[in-house]
Amino acid sequence: MIDKKKHKVFVDGAIGPAFIADSIAKHSTKKNIGAHSIFLGQVRNDIINEKEVEAIEYTAYSEMAEEIFHEIREAAFTKYSLTCMHIYHSIGRVNAGEISLFVFTSSVHRKDAIQACNEIVERIKNEVPVWGKEIFSGETYQWKTNS
Amino acid sequence: MIDKKKHKVFVDGAIGPAFIADSIAKHSTKKNIGAHSIFLGQVRNDIINEKEVEAIEYTAYSEMAEEIFHEIREAAFTKYSLTCMHIYHSIGRVNAGEISLFVFTSSVHRKDAIQACNEIVERIKNEVPVWGKEIFSGETYQWKTNS
Amino acid sequence: MIIKINLLFFGQAADITGKASWNFSGITNTLELNEKLIENFPGLQTIKYSIAVNRKIVRENTILNNEDTVAILPPFSGG
Amino acid sequence: MIIKINLLFFGQAADITGKASWNFSGITNTLELNEKLIENFPGLQTIKYSIAVNRKIVRENTILNNEDTVAILPPFSGG
Q1: Which residue of A50, B55, B141, C77 lies most exposed, with the fewest beta carbons within 10 A?
Q2: What are the residue ranges spanned by the domains of chain D?
Q3: What is the DSSP secondary-structure string of A16-76?
């Protein structure tokens, strides 16, 4: 009862709470799941040189990104005992306050879901060729750097 | 902009995906948040001595539990740099496949939300006086033990 | 003065005693209480439990005062 | 035979070069490619970037083959 089917990771624009609710609801039929771990990345309205970030515009090297997402996925299923795993990342404009990353892992016992989720998030931040352009009010921008 | 307001932790019956979505959506106005970490506990249909768990019925020593939840909450806000924290736990019957625990932490940078969420879940499992009665099909039951 | 305490039973302890609460008099500390409990409900010897006095778990023998609330807590299984 | 590679620029590298893609001929490895790139786009010296050959990041000098796709990747900032 392992759900390893691939789905598209990139979604256009922000990831809405209703989409997340729907993903959670779909797991109620998988009654061997005991724990879900979810990470959500939300766009911050950082103030940089007195200008406020209004949105982040994400671009990606899609072909390479899909390969790396696949690698991350396979490695997590090998290392942890997971029932399901879902990763969604925004492409295009996401406004401050909106969600741009949704990582969702499920397992029988909580440790697998929790550790896998954390590891997947770190790998995404470090290894996936995605770039965020921080758009300031007034149309200027700068390229985001991950900390 | 720290949201430390207390709310009731115990909710009657299962925690629905729409409730979770609503909690997430409320944070879109807090634009300094960069990361949310969510843990969901789901009731498993374990097979024990050939009988399947249909539901868990939760009871609690509420007055003591509320004090411990408060302690857990204060300790997490002291130790981690959190913007918000929410904990919800079911009381009463929750069917297999439904959600009985919802822990939700938010922070500017991801490490705080992730570590706080994990720690809160461990403390809840170990320290909060709640008992789950595993109800089998056919009305028999046994008392759950946390691993 | 004979002290009176309010006893609360939870989870499997409530199943064994058949009660959720009980008033108890004539004991002065948790060790005595525990002995009396097992005398009255031998089934409690078959399970593990902690004792909370006024909502705080006590690990060592603890003096009881009049009107204290003492709870019998089997291993927790929330979440 | 003169090899031809497909170059891709992303993020800030695309801003600096003013291009998302480019065809490039006459180089045989990534070290040479890098030198040519900086010659053509001196602004690239002001940023950090990795080089991917056919979607794999290469850390050392790598031989290029005809029709390889080489991508210029500034530090990632997804999530």
Answers
A1: A50
A2: 4-73
A3: -HHHHHHHHHGGGG-TT--EEEEEEEE----EETTEEEEEEEEEE-HHHHHHHHHHHHHHH
Range D4-73 classified under CATH 3.30.300.20: no
Interface mutation vs chain A, best among B30, B38, B119, most A CBs within 10 Å: B38
Q: Do B17 and A22 touch (CB under 8 A)?
A: yes
Domain presence at residue B2 = no
Task: Write out pLDDT tens, residues A107-145.
Answer: 999 999 999 999 999 999 999 999 999 999 877 889 888
Place of tokens 């942890």: A80
Would the CB atoms of C75 and B58 count as touching at under 8 Å?
Answer: no
**Would you say residue B90 lies in a domain?**
yes
pLDDT 10s digits, A10-36: 999 999 999 999 999 999 999 999 999
Output the pTM of the full model: 0.94
For residue A115, give the chain B residue with the closest CA.
B118
Q: Is residue B5 part of a domain?
A: no
| Lowest mean pLDDT across A69-73, B4-8, B98-102, D46-50 | B4-8
Provide the residue type at B105 as one letter.
Answer: T
C47 closest CA partner among C3, C79, C8, C11 = C11
Residue of B48, B58, B131 to mutate for C, most C C-beta atoms under 10 A? B131
| Chain B residues in contact with C52 (beta carbon < 8 A) | 61, 64, 129
CATH number assigned to the domain comprising residue A123: 3.90.1170.40
Number of domains in chain B: 1
In angstroms, the separation between the Cα of residue B76 and the nearest Cα of chain C is 18
Residue with tokens 């003065």: C1
Q: Which of A21, A110, A121 sits opposite B121 (nearest CB)?
A: A110
| Domain range for B109 | 10-144
- Answer whether A58 sits within 8 Å of D78, measured CB to CB: yes
In degrees rounded to 5, what are phi and psi of residue A133? -105, 115
